[in-house]
Amino acid sequence: MIVLDILLPGMNGFKVCETLREEGVWTPILMLTAKDGEWDEAEALDTGADDFLSKPFSFVVLSARLRALSRRTQQPRPVRLTCGTLVLDPATRVCTRAESPIALTAREFSLLEALMRREGDIVAKPTLLDEVWGHDFMGDPNIVEVYVGYLRRKIDDPFHVKTILTVRGAGYRLVADE
Question: What pLDDT was estimated at residue 48?
Answer without folding.
Answer: 82
